[in-house]
Amino acid sequence: MSAADIELVEVHKHYRKGRIDIPALDGLSLTINAGALVAIMGPSGSGKSTLLHLVGGLDSPTSGAVRVGEAQLARMSERELTAWRSRHVGFIFQMYHLVPVLTAAQNIELPLLLFHMPASERRRRVDTALEVVGLTDRRDHRPSQLSGGQEQRVAIARAIVTDPDVLLADEPTGDLDAKTSEEILNLLSLLHADFGKTIVMVTHDPRAAAYGQRVLHLDKGVLDRDEVNPRVAQAVRV
Amino acid sequence: MALPLSYHWRHLLAHRTTTVLTVLVIAAVVGTQAWILGFSVAFNNSLAVASDERKIIVIRRGASAESSSALPVEEFNRLIQLPALAVDADTHEPLVSPELMVQIALPRRRDKGQTTGNVAVRGVTAAAFRVHDTVKLQGPLFSKGAQEVVVGVKAAEQFMGLQVGDVIRLGYGNNREYQVVGFFSARGGPLESEIWTYLPSLQSAHNRDTYSSAALRVRDDVDPHKVVEEIAGPAIGLTAQTERDYWQAQTSRIRAYRALVSVLVSVMAIAAAVAVANTMFTLVAGRTREIAMLRTIGFSGRQILTGFVLEAMMLTLAGGVVGCLACQVWLDFVGHAKDMYAATNFTTLAFDIRLTPEIMVCAISTVITLGVAGALVPAWRAARVEVVRALREA
Amino acid sequence: MPTLQRDWWALPTLQSTNVTLTYVLMRNLTRNPLRTGLTAVAFALPMGIFVLALSLVVVLTEAAAKNEKQLRLAVRNKMALTGYLPDGVRRKIEELDPQRQRLRAVCAMRWFGGRVPDTQDTLTSLACDVDTFPVVYSDFELSPEEGARWQSERRAAVVGDGVARTHGWHVGQRVELKSTIPPYLRLEFMIVKIIANSSPPNMFYFRRDYLRDSLEADGATGAGCNLIWVKCTSAANLRALQQEIDALFANSPSETKSEDENAFISGFVQAIGDIPGLARSMALVVVFIIALVAGNSMMMSFRERTSELAVFKALGFPPRRVFGLVLAESLLLALLGSLLGIVPTATGLALIPRQMLISASFSPPRFSALAVVGALTIGIVVGLLAGVWPAYQALRLRTTDALRRVA
Fold first, then answer.
1. Tell me, what's the ipTM?
2. Which of A111, A144, B79, C51 is deepest in the core (most CB within 10 A)?
């Protein structure tokens, strides 16, 4: 039951494609409070995925500072970032990225294998995560035996099983139909409400963005608009 | 803690066809490798026994082996005068053994007698058992009065008609019947491929008044190579070699054969390593996104690398086990014994090829090493998967 | 009108299918150069061994076929290879056929065990009956002058090309050999003939009357021989004489064992390491390996491209063309690997001078077009077989399923 705040200061991120330098983020600064549920929107190439990768420590900024909780990510080495990710961040992807040859429970267990933890403790955590996402009866199924929505819920369980401070979701509903999307988004809201996780969700679906307390609109690597969603802000308080 | 083993074997099972084909390639290589290792070990064991530096084999000058040597009695008698000879503790007799070697053709057991091999028959006296101290009788000794022989355990395994009670025909004109009365062992050395009988009996059977050779044992405080030189010198004028040198020379052809097979097996082993590399590259390429996910979760590059190397080890281990089993089945099928001729005398040396646990461990660990070498580059590539790009490609 | 139109369209469509598929085929091989390379290497190494083994088998088979035509029967002491047969045996064999209808000539030989002085090189040296040697070994093709010299020069020697090259001997040269068997004579010879393509290469034939006289001059007995060659007039006569000779001497003090020349040689060859047997088993293992390597590579390649093949089918390419595409890729890959293995090995065999490979005990492999063709054929067959299963899968591929798998 922990959460971290996020702070970006004057972050630039450039990609080289051949000879051309492409700016993905162009001096972005923003702050996200601990325990917030924030949606990031923007057209293709606006830098929203890059933002997510920087916050998750998958990538380092060309210049500027990224702070998540107490970690100054821009100053950390590849190795430090790897270790930090395993403890503090949970990722949810559009394509779920489950290991096809492992069962639901084994997929969820994967991140726990990085810690010295007795098998019984791992099992307890996996069971809890399965219960949270409502898939206890599917624990021994392979990804190929699950529906898209169930696969994504397994992916969410895998993201929360280490009890991270931050959950980062990249188009979590991008591959799902409207009804299933709603279930997934409700699950994320629940995690936010019940466990107080900081959740950052990149999406281009306005209905998904509507679940965010705050919606950041990126365009061409800079913050275009920063809206507060009063309906959700209230709903959380209730 | 790294990735669980189940993660890897499940992946190998998922790529069933590729895995099975690769395992079979490795199995073929390990199988042949285990065979040549088995052969080498049998050969080395045999030679290791026959490398007594204190034992000297003396033959007639100009002869190249015992079987083509004729040593007149008066020349043999000069050897008895050698001051360097060891003396038996009980009888105080000098340890020098006159020996006569003839050969007989016997049908091989392996092909049910379709082919024959030349087996050495050695005529000996009581001194032989003191000079060749590795020889241990199993059962009775031939009696001096009757026509009887004792048979080396390898010869009995390899050739037909050498069991106790069987009769072999010896002598000039093949007119003397000798009965097998017992066996002897020689710690796996070349003497086990021979048949022994009483020297005067064999001499009279073959109308010979000479010996073939003499085996002698030198005192512990003498340099055997000095004795070799002394025997070759003008006073005695015979050819002498320590037992080690004698057998090294006799087995030159077998060693050439072994070298040839080893080279061929090595070439195939390299091919197997390349095959493993090929398979691992494909396994890695098919899993780029999965690796990116694992890296995102917090697995380090080194853990991914270790994992893939481990996967290759599982692959090669499976191939190694299958290969050893196949080799064992093959040996059971065609027989464990292989006999080859010594270099110059066309006398059979029999080897007993056994896949001991050591040989299997050696063959399997060699191929695992090769497999790991083949997997390193693909595994390194897996560890270096660019997470962000791989995720974008999803 | 519609008929014409269909014809008009149909022809170029067919053509372009082939062109497109050929293009795709080449692209497939170059798209994953790493796999193509690794497969080719994993294929080429065993293939090299295969060519080598096959070359040896071809050489030995040729030699065996040549020997068989010579219709020679080897008669030796049954009890021991090195045992002696009395000189009377030759006469008794000749008396089996006084009219010379079934056997042409009988030549007795005696081991000499001659070693070239100051070397470790012990030759396969045999003292032969002077009168019948040129008849029994008519394949040595002694010219009338060489034949005359063999008859007139007591110390005449006919030697294999292997020995001659190793020691730099030439016709007319005087050479010495030292026997390694009692009584260890040292004799001088005069080379009258060098045998081309001698098998084994280290043969050394000379006159038995010369040996007998020399032995007796040394006080030893010169009588007895180790081996008697009977030149027969037909294969049927050879089989019959083999039975008759062994029956003739059965239960005598000198029991014989008769074998045709190839059986006699293979008895030796097997015992000194059975290189031909080794070549055969290696060839088997190697074919097994290359089949697996090629099959594996094709399965991997097919697996990765399932969706692409489905697209081809969806675009309207006939299934049998897709089948052909996969098969052709496998074939090309196998050809590439085969050539990579065959060319260097065959070139090596053709270029490396024969004397470098010469061993005393067996004829070395040499470049053989037959072996190259054989190896290439095996490569092609393996390539086709390895491609059949994936190609069949491609044929049966359900387009919709395959496309969904990608999505």
1. 0.79
2. C51
